[in-house]
Design goal:
Radius of gyration: 14 Å
Strand order of the largest sheet: 3-4-5
Distance between the termini: 15 Å
Order of helices and strands: EHEEEHHHE
Helix content: 25-40%
Number of strands: 5
């Protein structure tokens, strides 16, 4: 996305200096959790599926309704453990949308 001319912000829970270095390598801007949703058109969630329920519930609270949410997490039971609803056939993007309280577009990577 950076190569296509988009402004890209990245966040992770690691120490900020590591995030800054990685963002610089990618040509992106490091962000804090408080600022990650400001002035964005698209949010890409790319964390292990098991981490999605622990995302802050207010994460999308101030994001406009037209912000597109894309999930690239891909559920792997060997990594994420058994998530009963997904094991029983619930579509991953539906499950993620329920967790973040936003419609989600699913991207299998």
């Amino acid at each position: 996305m950076v190569a296509a001319g988009h402004v890209v912000k990245v966040y992770n829970a690691d120490e900020f200096d590591k995030l800054k270095n990685r963002a610089q390598e990618l040509g992106a801007s490091p962000s804090t959790l408080d600022n990650i949703m400001k002035d964005v058109d698209i949010v890409i969630i790319s964390v292990p599926t098991t981490a999605i329920p622990s995302l802050p519930k207010e994460l999308f609270a101030d994001a406009p309704e037209n912000v597109i949410v894309v999930d690239t997490s891909n559920y792997y039971p060997f990594r994420d453990g058994d998530i009963e609803e997904l094991q029983n056939g619930k579509v991953e993007s539906v499950w993620v949308a329920e967790q973040v309280d936003r419609p989600v577009r699913y991207s299998r990577t």
